[in-house]
Amino acid sequence: MKSINKKPKILALLQLPPPIHGASMMNQAVIKSPAITDSFAITCLPLQFASSVGDISSLRLSKFIKVIEISLRLVKALTTNRYAFVYFTLSPVGFAFYRDLLFVSILKLFRTKILYHMHGKGIKRNANTSKIKKLLYQFAFKNTFVIVLAPILRKDIETVYAGLPFIVNNGITPLTRPYPSPKTKTKTKTKTDVIQILYLSNLKTNKGILILLESLVMLRNNNLTFKTQIVGNDGELTSSELKKIIKKMGLASFVSVLGPKYDTAKNEILNSCDIFCFPTFNDAFPLVLLEAMQFGKPIVSTFEGAIADIVNNGETGLLVPQKDCTALAEALQKLILDEKLRNMMENRALEKFSNQYTLHHFEENICAVFNNITKKSNTTLQ
What we know:
Order of helices and strands: EHHEHEHEHHEEEHEHEHEHEHEHHH
CATH class of the largest domain: Alpha Beta
Distance between the termini: 9 Å
Low-confidence stretches: 378-382
């Protein structure tokens, strides 16, 4: 006799840390969430092919062997269990998509319901490059459920997916340590105080780090007083290479490269800055913006991915076109010179974070999606 109290069984095919990036952190949050695991029996089959961010795009024999191993484990899991559905963080582009297409084919062979959680983007652009690619995407998305991170990201799959995707914003755990909030800390800066700008991300060119440096040269040439801290792991650029570039550009007295910071050290740097700058041109839903918002920091970023949904332009931050050094410099200068505007954005950023981007909101929304799909599933729970 089947128990009506038995939790729905879900197989999760997820990228988990290491390496640490937005998708792996949110995936880890799902499988570790008591709010989710209290309602659903989740078995995780981790998709870990790289040990660092820099290793993600490399092709090695060990990765191909790992693909075969995971494929065999997937077949065994589907043969020996009945799942309400499979929760899968499908890679949208590159070799990783074709790798994941093998797993998709296995799932479709077993007629398993699939829920994709799309943490990246680039499908629409990639599908438009060839008919074969578009057909492969259409095969992958046919008769599936999909989560996207924000309404604007629906457009990325609109040419290959006929359904209406669920919207689930990412969220992060609110601070447990009592840092001063914009509502309680002293706002007025003295004339001797220097505005602190923070960049926090991997040292990758597509995160706009070199664009930022060009804009800082413009600020220096405008005789503005400021300090900039650059925090993050090495990417295409190492910390030592970046320091050489900074020195060559005449920014050594304005910019400090601090390397990676974690936990308390990272929070203290976020708390102490006045402006958070992230001029990326390759992101979907950057968690680092949520981290800045929970400290009430006005953000300067770009019209990229879901950033325009996260940052209310003119209210919680300023958005500029990608790769536009002049526009970036103008936005930074506006905030440097306008303390009243910074203070207004601080309060609104913190308010929006608290109302929309906490981990609690994320967990509630994921549970709602899981319940929705479970009710639609014809799978008999065992």
